[in-house]
Amino acid sequence: MNTYNPADASVQIYCQNTNSYLSVSGGSSLLDIYNIVKDEIAFDPVNARVNNKAEDLNFRVYAPKTVEFMPVTSDSGYRTYIRSLCMMLYHAVNTLLPGCNIRIAHSLSRGYYCLIEGVGQKPDESLAERLEAHIRSLVERDLPFVRHELRTSDVIDIFEKQGLKYKALLLETTHEPYSAFYELDGLCDSYYGALVPRTGQLGVFRLIPYEEGLLLLGPDRQNPTVPATPVEQKKMYQAFTSYQAFNSIVGVKTVGEMNRAVEKGESPMLINVAEALHNNRIATIADDITERFGRGDARIVLVAGPSSSGKTTFTKRLAIQLMTNLITPVMISLDDYFVDRHKTPVDETGDYDYESLYALDLELFNEHLNALLRGEEVELPYYNFETGSREFRGNKIRLAPDSILLIEGIHGLNPELTAGVDAKMKYHVYVSALTSIAIDYHNWIPTTDNRLLRRMVRDARYRGVAPAETIRRWTSVRRGEEKWIFPYQENADAMFNSSLLFELGVMRHRAEPLLARVPHDIPEYAEAARLHRFLSYFTPISEEYIPSTSLIREFLGGSSFKY
Asked: What does the alpha-carbon distance between residue 538 and residue 399 come to, in Å, rounded to a whole number?
């Protein structure tokens, strides 16, 4: 057994990485514990789970704990790495561009899109190089990120003196008596999660000009020894920025501003304006489809998006809007074109991979689409999920001159899905919850968190799935999205942002009881604890004023649509 000081009382630590018990001095940090077992672990950790809750490596133990050290390739580790890089970028802007503010807006193009306010010009290569050089100097100096916890009023004073008004406002509206923050080389900042112990751990990154701002690229998730390679996402960028412009007009760009508006009784206004924006955007997409339909094109609308993006409700609302444009929508379900179960591809674990494009009978699907476009009658298949086989039950359809096909499914933007159909006959829509509001200028809201909370609430309400199971499955869901959905999102003719300005305030009272049901002694607790803390930033908003046609009703219940 190893101890740091025999005079101190020792505590027993179980290290999951090495499947062994360690005896350490009370008050030892996680970094101290790692140094004992580092020869048995094949990576340098960036944080750790302590009793299934993420902590930074300076966290000290005073009682028996279970500890699992996390690499940068893990979701938790990657978030820690990126947050730490963001604080160094803030330090660089604060030092080189006094009086300017850095706004880390959202994830984009395999990186993080950042805007500099007050610089007076569009960031160029020269500025990016200067800022990157400053960050690299911080890496070389190997400075500590020092965590503090003080009375919230004192932390607010610190942030106000540094010009971090949105952080100060957030703390004012969350009403916590004490708040934690980090200090780097005399500069203070806060993040909703752990940072690495020292800047010397953060040597893998790039900073490049991107559109009107900069793109901060962390390590490649597959090869963390090199920075990620950006991909072109112009349409995604336009979707984000249009909603940020809307938020600016409403006066709600950050959670603190939204909380203050809720405190003033402005929830009905936030709901009404956000819903009106959805209506407007759906009408615009419907008008574009109608214009192309009038030219003899766009007879098939394919709607795609990741899990819990709201594509089902979007498709139903689009159908209504098309009807007001005197077009008759006809729905086809991709699920009915599954191949018989014994022909379904399997994944790396040997399970049936229903997310695979090749789980669908592409030949029959294309044959039916072209027959319908020629005006012929087609008998649609029905997939029996109990027997795992295709059946034909006499469901025959034919398109009238004013009819348009609406097809919803995760593969809608994949060219191979409809490879046999003339391109001009297709109109593609990508739906996702591109959360445009930020926690504060240095903490964005990941789109995936929004969708996971939606799915958890829906799964518990309609499918009887426990919250822990939803969290457990999420990694597999995300892996399928990365393979089958995200590579094709730029193929869209239109993008629809299904996020609603108010929804996380509404989700809080639905999701918190579910998160509390996740047992403490399972790995999924780490994600539940993180999401619970995340939701604590939002002042709850009543569902009272949400209309029955709202997209969020797909998850909350109370929708006037049938699913």
From this structure: 48
Q: Structure tokens of 527?
A: 């994600």
Residues 353-359: contacts with CB within 8 Å, 24+ apart?
A: 353/480, 355/410, 355/480, 355/483, 355/484, 356/484, 357/411, 357/414, 357/416, 357/417, 357/484
**What long-range pairs does 313-319 form, CB within 8 A, spacing at least 24?**
313/551, 313/553, 313/554, 313/559, 313/561, 314/282, 314/429, 314/431, 314/496, 314/498, 314/551, 315/406, 315/408, 316/561, 317/278, 317/282, 317/549, 317/551, 318/282, 318/285, 318/286, 318/406, 318/429, 319/406
- Sign of the C-alpha dihedral, residues 215, 216, 220, 225? positive
Compute the distance between CA of residue 368 and CA of residue 187 in angstroms, rounded to an integer: 63
Q: How many CA atoms lie within 13 A of 395 on its CB side?
A: 13
Rg (CA), the chain: 26
Which residues lie across from 494 on neighbouring strands? Answer: 429
Dist. CA 276–CA 399, nearest whole Å: 32
* pLDDT digits 0-9 by tens, 67-124: 999 999 999 999 999 999 999 999 999 999 999 999 998 999 999 999 999 988 899 9
